[in-house]
Each structure stands twice: as C-alpha cells, then as structure tokens.
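Checklist before submission:
- one chain only
- standard amino acids only
- sequence pasted in full

Submission:
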Amino acid sequence: MNSDEKRNQEHQRYARRLAKLEAQSAMAFDRRRRYQKQGIGSRIKGIKHAQQISNTRRVLSVLIPFVIILLLALYIVSPLSKITSIQVTGNQDLTAAKVESAAQIKKGALIWRVLNQQKKLEQTAKKANPQIKSLKVSLTDPQSIRIKVTEYPIIGVIEHNGVNQLLIGNGRLSPVKNHSISNFVRYAGFEHHEKIMQQTARQIGSLPSAIRAGISEVTFAPTTSDAKRLRIYMNDGNEILVRSDNLNQKMRYYPSIASKMKENGVVDLQYGAFSYSYDNQDE
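Returned file contents:
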C-alpha cells in the first residue's frame, strides 16, 4: 500500500506539473498571436500613412507651381502690375519729362518689364539724349518707380557748321532749342579740330564745378611749338594758357595760383605753373 500511494502521489504531481506547463504554453502562444496581429496592423497603418504623405507631396508638387503661375498671370493682367507714379532724381539741366522720354518710360508701363530691362533702358536713354551719363530704375512702392539719372554737364556753347550748339562734358553736341545761350561759356577756334574740341570738352567737363563756373571763354590757340594750346579767359580777369590734354590736371592749381597774384595777368600752365601780370607779358 505504501508503494501504491507513493506512485499515486508522484503521478498526481506529474499531472499537475504537466497541466501547469500546458497552461503556460497556451498563455505564451496567445500572447504571440496577439502581438503578431497587433504588429501587422501597425505596419499596415505605417504603410498607409507613408502612402498618404507621398500622395500629398505629389499633389503639392503639381499644385504649387500651377498656383504660382496663375497668380503671376493674374498680376500681369491686373492694374497692380502697371506704373502709376514716376519720380526722377539727380537731374539738373534735364527736366523729368526729358529723362522719362529718353528712357521711354511712362505711366501705365509694366513694372516688371521696366525693372528687368535696366541695361536696355539706359542704352536707349543715352542714345536719345547725349547728356545722360547713367540711369538706374528702382521700385519705391508696388506701383511707383524712381529714375536716378547722372548727367554730363553742359559746359558751353559752340558754333558748329554755322549753327550754335550746346557743348556737353562728354564732347558731344546738342541742339540749343529752348536754352538761352547768353550765359553759357563760349568756345571758339575749334573749326576743323573736332578731336581737340572733344578732348577739351571732356577735360573741362570733369573739372570741379567751382572751377568750371569761373570760366568765361575757351579758345583754341595753337602755336608752332604747341599744337594743343588753349587760351582760357576767366571771369576774374585772368587768362590761362594750358594744353588740351592735361587741362583737367593743371587747372586744379589755378585757384591757389590766382589767390597769390597781386594783379590780373596770365597763368601759364602749359608745361609748368607760373604767372605774370599783363604789364610784363612777353609774347
């Protein structure tokens, strides 16, 4: 009996251990199945989310350029793209209307076209009006632009082919038209010496305005020893002898020399820099 009871007890312990193992295995299998189901679902959701993002990007890559092109087209045909106000700055001799006309810019023109053709506009303006040195257009408001112009100065009047012409600081000529020539510096003696005239004009045009304003008359007066000699008469009563090719450099010494002169006379700047009174003039 004792041996039978022992076997019976062992059999029961074994059965309990087996039942426990089977229960643990069943629980582990159930957990794996739930995890697998959950993992597949998550992966499916991730794939769907990625597909949605990809589809959205493709739609936006087509839609955004289309919207931009549409907005640009609407802007171009709308009144907002047209110039309503023009301001001209930097002009001295030229009127604002002349600058606008030379550059062919007027109200109602397309702003984007004007801003994108700066070099062409400057070339057009220079060709139309020789007094224009440079021209730049900038946007000040959505429908307003500023034209900043730099001019060559009008340095005097000269008789060319029997007609009075304005002489510009770049050596070019311009019609007198509505200008009164009585207050302009007179240039004489340049007939058949156009290169000397242009050289003289460029040299005088680049002088400081204070020195240029003191000039009364410029005469080409060559000699056998100096084919480029100029005789310049000043408003203060002095006379200057100077060469046309170094006039700009030499004339800058004139204010200092004139301030030391005790009486009016000649300032010789041809090869040096000295002065003498008219009484001591030896020609």
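Reviewer check: The chain has three domains: 1-77, 80-151, 154-280.
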